[in-house]
Amino acid sequence: MLLCFNSGALWTPGSTPKIEKFFFETFGRPLPISALGQRATHDCLRLDHRNVIDVALHPDSTEGRRY
Fold it and tell me: What is the DSSP string of the chain?
């Protein structure tokens, strides 16, 4: 399943450590980043994925529903 979330928050790749820290402190495990930036899959799907991260969470999981 592919979900896209666009928030009003300012995002830069430098924000990743802050998000990783929040996730670890909240859920007690590392943030499951599946892609950082543009990958071949994004090229095939014709997605502009520069300066973006993919996080592998099931939307029905506790972490996926929490926020």
Answer: -------SS---GGGHHHHHHHHHHHHSS---EEEES--HHHHHTT---TT-EEE---TTSHHHHH-
pLDDT in tens, 30-63: 999 887 766 777 667 777 776 777 788 888 888 8
| Residue 65 falls inside a structural domain | no
Q: Is residue 34 part of a domain?
A: yes
**What domain range includes position 37?**
13-60
> Whole-structure pTM over 0.70, yes or no?
no
| Alpha-carbon span 32 to 57, nearest angstrom | 7
Number of domains in the chain: 1
Cα→Cα distances 34→8, 14, 54, 56, Å = 23, 17, 5, 6
